[in-house]
Amino acid sequence: MDPMDQGIEDIRTKSAFIIDMDGVVYHGDHLLEGTKEFVAWMRRENKKFLFLTNSSERSPVELSQKLARLGVEVESEHFYTSALATASFLRTQKPGGTAFVIGDPGLMHALYDAGYTMNNVNPDYVVVGEGRSYNLEAIERGVKLVLEGARLIGTNPDLNGPVEGSLAPACGALIAPIELATGKKAYFIGKPNPLMMRHALKQLGATREETIIIGDRMDTDIVAGVETEIETVLVLSGVTAREDIARFPYAPRHVLGGVYEIPD
Hints:
The protein is built from ten helices and 15 strands. A six-stranded parallel β-sheet has the order 5-4-1-13-14-15, sandwiched between helices. Helix content is 37%, strand content 21%. 48% of the residues are buried. The radius of gyration is 18 Å and the shape is globular. α4 packs parallel to α5 (105-113). It starts with a helix and ends in an 8-residue tail after the last strand. It folds into two domains: 3-54 and 192-261, Rossmann fold; 83-188, HAD superfamily/HAD-like (Rossmann fold, 3-Layer(aba) Sandwich), CATH 3.40.50.1000.
């Protein structure tokens, strides 16, 4: 058998799939090639699957609605975000705590659901995610609160993320002014933090041996798989080009043009 064919068969035999979203199934409001067929194949083959995104902007319901607008029906329980992982982490660290949040409603709702309240005076945490509420006034407030003792949390370490036709700053870039101004390093919850991956496996009800992760980023998706010993697939439909792979000291198990190659 051709090694490429064997690689595809190895992917197809997995019973659980963790799938990144931006750059894997869509760019902005553009559905990527093969997404419909890939989702239909996973359903037909009775695969467990979870869309795992480092974006903190949208809730699982909103992500489900977005895919529906693009023509793919996927129930909200098949989505897990860095906002949910962040809320879960904070709930275990300090139940019933407070936070000053720079981010969109998806992050705030996750924190509310975890028993957190919003506090811009003396919060336990300053939490930063992506969102349109990002401005100089919010950054100045975040700097003040961190200097006064609030702990700094980032939903994910991504410096940028794909948008249609370009890249946009992501949480790692947006939180940098607070880190630089205060001299305090943020703790990031999203991929490649193994916490996020353990949450995903628990959500799926799957073991790492029967699971595979599909992503477009070497520095989050692929390293997350490597560090948690989950088999990896890099797709070249997002931010990573084939020539970029050699710049990293680790490698994906499989490299595909996109998810369109997976269904048989």
